[in-house]
TrEMBL record:
Keyword Ribonucleoprotein: yes
Native organism: Eutreptiella gymnastica
Keywords: Mitochondrion, Ribonucleoprotein, Ribosomal protein, Transit peptide
Pfam families: MRP-L28
Family according to the record: Belongs to the mitochondrion-specific ribosomal protein mL40 family.
Main localization, broad class: mitochondrion
GO CC terms, sorted: mitochondrion; ribonucleoprotein complex; ribosome
Domain of life, source organism: Eukaryota
Localization annotation: Mitochondrion
Name recorded for this polypeptide: Large ribosomal subunit protein mL40
Length: 224
């Protein structure tokens, strides 16, 4: 008996006789017991990890994210069978058609609703502006400038073109090159106040007096 089973270890022979199991069954049971660990009275399988190849790890880390994404997409399209219209059953095609039709109807209704809301909003803004203009024109301009959520056609901003004669800058955006033209235009239209007219006249008279004094000084030096 021992000559036939000479490859067995002594403790295996004792366990075989003790458990009345054949030697191959005892060896399998012992291997199973080695591959398990007892934690809090329960057996937990220990995962067997294969040794990683350092060359494959280095090659994987060397690839960029774009290359990894391209490999993932290529694997998705090559490994996954893509169903065409001919491969799909009639019931699935009917379901997809109904879903697409419902989505198109929803988008059309949503677009119409947005158009109606914009139209109603425009009418309300115009009505409010007319009411403010009746009270004070500056209130209407200030209301337009203080509304960040207004319709774009009502937004005002300083122009990027060169100033022209008679150009009046927007409310809150004074431009130095058009101050004289603005004062002249308001003066012609009779919309300038008396104080501003007096200030403009005073500045011109001061300039004339200074110019006359300079001319008299030069004349005195030339005569002397």
């Amino acid at each position: 008996f021992f000559g036939v089973q000479s490859n067995m270890e002594p403790h295996m022979v004792s366990r075989c006789f003790a458990s009345s199991l054949p030697w191959w069954a005892a060896r399998a049971k012992q291997a199973q017991m080695k591959s398990t660990q007892s934690t809090s009275g329960a057996k937990r399988l220990v995962p067997h990890r294969l040794p990683l190849n350092p060359k494959s790890i280095k090659k994987l880390n060397a690839r960029t994210s774009d290359q990894k994404f391209a490999a993932l997409v290529d694997n998705y399209f090559t490994s996954r069978p893509m169903l065409t219209r001919l491969d799909k059953p009639e019931r699935q095609l009917q379901k997809e058609w109904l879903l697409a039709k419902s989505y198109d109807r929803f988008k059309t209704m949503e677009h119409d609703k947005q158009q109606k809301d914009q139209k109603r909003k425009k009418e309300l803004i115009e009505e409010a502006l007319k009411t403010l203009e009746e009270i004070d024109p500056m209130l209407a301009i200030g209301a337009l400038e203080s509304r960040p959520d207004a319709i774009p056609i009502y937004l005002r901003a300083p122009t990027l073109t060169p100033p022209v004669v008679g150009y009046i800058p927007g409310y809150g955006f004074p431009i130095e090159g058009t101050q004289e033209d603005e004062t002249t235009l308001l003066k012609v239209l009779g919309m300038v106040e008396e104080k501003k007219v007096e200030q403009v006249v005073d500045t011109t008279e001061d300039d004339l007096r200074a110019q006359r004094q300079k001319e008299s000084r030069w004349k005195g030096r030339f005569i002397g």
